[in-house]
Design a protein that fits this description.
six-stranded mixed sheet; 16 helices; 3-hydroxyisobutyryl-CoA hydrolase; 370 residues; single chain; 2-enoyl-CoA Hydratase, Chain A, domain 1; alpha/beta; globular
Length: 370
């Protein structure tokens, strides 16, 4: 047990419970370290056959990283914030490569860092209350925690769409596009945990089979909202497969006079008025580059990109500091972005996030995946 994370073994199952519900279980550095320590300990513990991740409280599993800490640290001139990201990305990789079943109960709000500790799970369970997103461009960041990797692996150009807009979607969409595996009623999650705890399991495969069987046999959740992405797949692919963000916006403007006019107008307005012009362009490039990268390589890239977001490389301007200030600290919702609009973002502005020696000796994730 540490502040905001409870780790315990019940039966043959290791439970990681995030216990910071007043902050939507936002991840602090200590929480990340506690999760990593538990997983390291249980990896070779023969008493533990599987791991369950869950969040305390009604609102959700995890809304992301502790962005207030990011702002405070950078404003105070501290650079140890990059240790936070190095440890978080190591945890993301540990989860994705964990040798025992890791079952993520993705109930309620699951965004940003919450996606990072869930997407690598062996079994990703969502509920009728799930609200999922990678909303980083709204605060001057980009979809990190492996976001480039798992978004780039979605069909068509869904990754570009979700990564740049940061839209929120529910359980049906999550399962249909491949960001979740199965829907279980929220009220049934305690029963699932009890069954895993009380079962006489011989090995890890039996634990995973039991969880999958329970999920498959569960009654459909009441009040499950229908998906909204499937009917838009063709138009999303048409526009978010275009060359760059200005071309995408131009296409959306033209689409506003066609069949998907409502969606096009809403999407264009979102990108123009509620997202960082620079970071929408960076996120588009990130997802496209990630299609050629392993998860380990993408996490190494993201660590370097994060240095640029907070201007720790002295070349890019602290877009993330301004976004967090406007949306979370002062809450004036009037960020002073570096660029007046997306058309003002130059190719070299985006290239700075990706150029140079990417896997140099100063990258703390150099050995990841080796």
């Amino acid at each position: 047990m540490t502040d905001f994370v409870r780790t315990e073994i019940r039966g043959r199952i290791g439970f990681i419970t995030l216990t910071r519900p007043k902050a939507l279980n936002a991840l602090s550095h200590d929480m990340i370290r506690a999760m990593a320590a538990a997983l390291d300990q249980w990896r070779d513990d023969p008493k533990v056959l599987g791991v369950v991740l869950q969040g305390e409280g009604e609102k959700g599993l995890c809304a992301g990283g502790d962005i207030r800490y990011f702002h405070e640290a950078i404003s105070a001139g501290r650079t140890d914030i990059m240790d936070f990201f190095a440890d978080e990305y190591r945890l993301n990789y540990t989860i994705a490569s964990y040798p025992k079943p890791y079952i993520a109960l993705m109930d309620g709000v699951v965004m940003g860092g919450g996606m990072g500790i869930s997407q690598g799970a062996t079994l990703r369970i969502v509920t009728e209350a799930t609200r999922m997103a990678m909303p980083e461009t709204a605060i001057g960041l980009f979809p990190d925690v492996g976001g480039g990797f798992f978004l780039s692996n979605l069909a068509g150009h869904l990754g570009e769409y979700l990564g740049t807009t940061g839209i929120v979607f529910g359980a049906v969409d999550a399962c249909e596009i491949g960001l979740a595996d199965v829907v279980v009623p929220r009220a049934s999650l305690p029963e699932l945990c009890d069954r895993l705890v009380n079962g006489d399991w011989q090995d890890s495969d039996a634990v995973l089979d039991a969880a999958r069987t329970f999920a498959r046999e569960s009654l459909p959740p009441a009040g499950l909202a229908p998906g909204k992405l499937a009917p838009l797949r063709s138009v999303i692919d048409e526009h978010f497969g275009l060359a760059d963000m200005p071309a995408i916006l131009k296409g959306l403007k033209l689409e506003a006079r066609c069949e998907y006019s409502g969606w096009a107008e809403e999407t264009e307005d979102l990108l123009r008025t509620k997202r960082s012009p620079l970071m929408t362009c960076v996120a588009l490039e990130q997802v496209r580059r990630a299609r050629k990268l392993s998860l380990a390589d993408e996490l190494r890239e993201e660590w370097l990109m994060m240095r640029s977001v907070f201007n720790l490389d002295g070349r890019t301007g602290a877009e993330g500091v301004e976004g967090i200030r406007a949306m979370v600290i002062d809450k004036d919702h009037k960020p002073r972005w570096q660029h007046a609009n997306i058309e003002a973002v130059k190719p070299e502005d985006v290239a700075r996030f990706f150029d140079g020696e990417r896997h140099g000796a100063d990258n703390p994730l150099l050995a990841l995946g080796q």
